[in-house]
Design a protein that fits this description.
340 residues; alpha/beta; four-stranded mixed sheet; 13 strands; binds adenosine-5'-diphosphate
């Protein structure tokens, strides 16, 4: 039995060491990546049982990814190796204007050839949460495998979570991306989406609330719109609200912040039974914001995902600072025994 099963791509990110376009970059560091793989590791680091389903190449990079996942405590019994294609590679750099340059290698890559023949149905049915993204919805056979896994999760009353994760360059067209990503949206109970992704999925709405409500459907229980350093805004059937983000001492690299956030969100959901009251949701979102914020303090995604103790210590520190700020100055003086 596991708490969270994630499915989709595990890949290698080659991250440029200096800022600039990919053409300007000459030094790259090899980083394990792929949003669903990151989320599985994030959940395991936060102390919950996680499993990853998908496919990598039967090559050095594929075995490296399997090793990283297993070492992080992720169940990889549902990870397949293939000789038909290689492990996906993505070259990434941060341009001077703050945008990311991406270049994907492997068309098709091993993850795209993942098949539904031997899905671990018992593992999926035994999970409390099933999480997937949109990259594995781009082409068959991975698309059918993902949809079969989601259908099995739904049929077994497993809570289904979805992160749209926009990578337009991988889709055949903008329209295909919009309808393909919306197809995943229609199957989810819980969705984490960034403001940019939301604007893409619901064009024509300037207002975030209206955009979310325009995409609302009867299976949805929670939508969370992330806003970088500003935190997030959440929506249930009946409530909505903002939960501010945390300031960290130094932002080193925002790669994986969204995945760290999702890991925190899923662990929070595991620990708060439905129906979620607004206080529960605020607690869950603070935990997710803290996990996301801490992910920005180290380089890369998987290496930066925080452990539970670190998130809790960070939250204690933030709560202490909040209490300190809330206390009137007069009272502080009275309490200080040594004050003159
Ligand atoms: P994505 O990485 O998916 O684009 P965001 O950039 O919105 O998503 O980040 C996800 C979450 O990570 C935010 O909601 C916030 O909790 C946290 N986060 C991201 N960037 C920062 C930052 N610079 N400082 C503090 N927290 C951050």
């Amino acid at each position: 039995m596991v708490d969270v099963v994630t499915c989709g791509e595990a890949l290698i990110d080659f991250v440029a060491l200096r800022q600039g376009t990919l053409a300007e970059s000459s030094l790259f560091r090899r980083m394990p990546g792929g949003a669903p793989a990151n989320v599985a590791v994030g959940v395991a680091r936060l102390g919950r049982r996680a499993a990853f389903l998908g496919q990598v190449g039967d090559d050095e990079f594929g075995h490296f990814l399997a090793h990283v996942l297993a070492q992080s405590g992720v169940d990889i019994s549902g990870l397949r190796f293939t000789t038909e294609a290689r492990t996906a590679l993505a070259f990434v750099s941060l341009r001077e204007d703050g945008e990311r340059d991406f270049l994907f290698y492997g068309q098709p890559s091993a993850d795209m050839l993942w098949r539904s023949d031997d899905l671990p149905l018992d593992l999926i049915a035994s999970a409390r949460i099933f999480h997937f993204g949109s990259i594995s919805l781009i082409t068959d056979p991975a698309r059918s495998a993902t949809l079969a896994a989601v259908a099995h999760a739904r049929a077994n009353n497993v809570l289904v979570s979805y992160d749209p994760n926009l990578r337009l360059a991988l889709w055949p067209s903008i329209e295909a991306a919009r309808s393909g990503i919306r197809a995943g949206w229609a199957l989810a109970h819980v969705i984490k989406v960034s403001e940019e992704e939301l604007a893409f999925l619901a064009p024509g709405f300037d207002d975030v609330d209206q955009a979310v409500r325009s995409l609302w459907h009867s299976s949805l229980r929670l939508v969370v719109v992330t806003r970088g350093a500003a935190g997030c805004r959440y929506y249930t059937d009946t409530h909505q609200g903002d939960v501010p983000g945390f300031r960290v001492q130094r932002v080193v690299d925002t790669t994986g912040a969204g995945d760290g956030f999702v890991a925190g969100l899923l662990v929070g959901l595991l620990e708060h039974a439905e129906p979620w009251m607004p206080e529960d949701i605020e607690t869950i979102m603070r935990f997710a914001n803290a996990a996301g914020a801490l992910t920005t303090t180290r380089r890369g995604a998987i290496p930066a995902l925080p452990r539970r103790a670190r998130v809790e210590a960070f939250l204690d520190q933030q709560n202490g600072a909040r209490r300190g700020r809330a206390m009137p100055r007069k009272r502080l003086k009275q309490e200080g025994e040594s004050s003159s």
